[in-house]
Write a structure and sequence with these properties.
Elements lengths: L3 H17 L26 H15 L1 H18 L1
């Protein structure tokens, strides 16, 4: 059954997966590492560079809040099943 909780849980799992990705070990194998975002001033950014920037910003901003959201989700699952 699709509920609001399942949507919240899916987005929490997606954010966890983005935060766990390692640029050196996983992303650079496929050309998505730190060196892939080399561009000049004033040049339009590519879609690949925008996705990399989004992943880096999620990793930077969401680490600490994700710890607390995971604790809340675990407690919710333990109490309500």
């Amino acid at each position: 059954m699709f509920t609001l909780w399942s949507l919240v849980e899916a987005s929490l799992l997606f954010l966890n997966a983005v935060c766990v990705l390692s640029e050196e070990r996983f992303l650079s194998k496929y050309g998505w590492g730190m060196s892939a975002q080399v561009q000049g001033f004033g040049e339009p950014t590519s879609t690949k560079a925008q996705i990399l920037l989004l992943v880096r910003s999620i990793r930077t901003v969401a680490k600490i809040p994700l710890i607390f959201l995971n604790i809340i989700a675990i407690m919710f699952k333990l109490i309500l099943g």
